[in-house]
Amino acid sequence: MQIDIITIFPDFFRGPLDYGIIRRAREAGLVKIEIRDLRAFTRDRHRTVDDRPFGGGEGMVLKPEPLFECVEALNLAPREERVAAKQSVILLSAQGRRFDQRLASELAELDRLVLICGRYEGVDERVGTHLADREISIGDYVLSGGELGATVIVDTVTRLIPGAVGNEASTRQESFFAGPELGGDDVSDRSVRPCDKLRAGSTRADSTCASGGLLDYPHYTRPADFRGMKVPEVLVNGNHEEIRRWRRRSALEKTLRNRPDLLDQAQLSKEDKKLVAEIEASSR
Ligand code: SAM
After folding, report:
1. Distance 96 CA to ligand 1 centre (A)
2. Pocket around ligand 1: residues whose beta carbon is below 6 Å from it?
3. Are 105 and 179 within one domain?
4. What DSSP character marks residue 111?
5. What's the number of domains the chain is made of?
């Protein structure tokens, strides 16, 4: 995959893209990230990228000309052929579709992403309507610029590229994951839980698939007793089935507590539904 980030602050990306999984994925050639300085596509002496808004009002607006010229210089497929070419030009915008794990998975399937970072009051609307293929927001709040949003998208998408994370199965067992492997028509009627299917043949209890659209289960490491705060006994007793059940119950508890909205879409087995009922009964 190649990702181009268009910004007026190219130095912003020194650092965030140079560590951990992203750095390794870049070094391994799994993802190529190019930072494009928008000012290089201006034609005046002052390298002007913004102007006052028509109709009056607060702030400045990013001009269309440099943004169009910059994207055109990237040799992408014509706009109407971009889906087939597995390319997408994305405008970071508080008014866009909200970014989530599902959208990240969709983007991870593509070969080319272009991320346009807005600044000031925003970007001339013609960029959204005639240049970009979609607008994406990283959440219901207003950032000063699209750079942080672009970084969030690059990070989330890169770790989904096959080979980027050492243990690929782990990205499928994290919070929110609800990919096709775990999907299905009526999970509640299956005798084999989706997570069991995913880990078919494994007797390890290192993960019990807290995902299926739920939040992840709690993780602990050594020491078993830290300042009197003890690791749950079940995790050190070596009984894999008990560990699996505890993790699943904890994931359900946490989801009920922090993100009950996720349960509507989550893939719940019969056992899950029983656990939810138990949790709800015990909290009454
Ligand atoms: N006037 C805009 C509005 O009310 O929606 C906010 C402009 S904001 C100060 C400047 C730039 O930051 C935007 O053009 C966009 O690129 C970026 N931005 C702000 N909030 C964002 C969000 N939630 N997600 C993604 N990008 C965002």
Report:
1. 9
2. 92-95, 117-119, 121-123, 137-139, 141-146, 149
3. no
4. S
5. 2
